[in-house]
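Annex B. Sample input.
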Amino acid sequence: MIELQKETTLAKARLHWGMFIPVLLLAFFPILASLPFMFLFHRLVGNLHQIGMPATPRLDLIWLGALVPFFVVVVGLLVGTWLSYSKSEVTLTNRRLVFRTGFLSRRSGELPLENVESLYISESVLGRICGYGTVSVTTVGGARFPLEFIGSPQGFHFRLQKAVQDAKNSLRQGRKPPESGSTPDDYESRYKPKG
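Annex B, continued. Sample output.
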């Protein structure tokens, strides 16, 4: 009879704050790129005003009007990323891997550890600097589950690899052993047609 182990939690992983970096880069890149043009524009308007030409109507308001929709989009992306960050969770037990990531676009799954075929770690340069990466889990059937923005991916990968190995070893030990005393020769003598 196979004795079932009680399911225990081995590790819980939260997503890393590094998932905010792409949104922040998206927010600051257009602003930094437009700074030289704004500087030149202000110099041009100042020079026109010095030589007595009337300055065009407050073009600062036009710049501000163009940036307001951009800031609304960036704030929306930051709020969406925050909700995704706070609602995501990856749990590793001695029997399965359970993950729920995202908020608007939700990915969730439950994977028995004995069905895991391979594990991969992928870390970008920024991920290595900040301490996050992607741990990809591939199943026996070929399905691939990338767990992105995992903090300390090497530590999580090590725990996951050990849990998968333990689950597969306990599955092998739990199988019914062959009958004692039976050998392949016994099989042939018992079922081989006499003739």
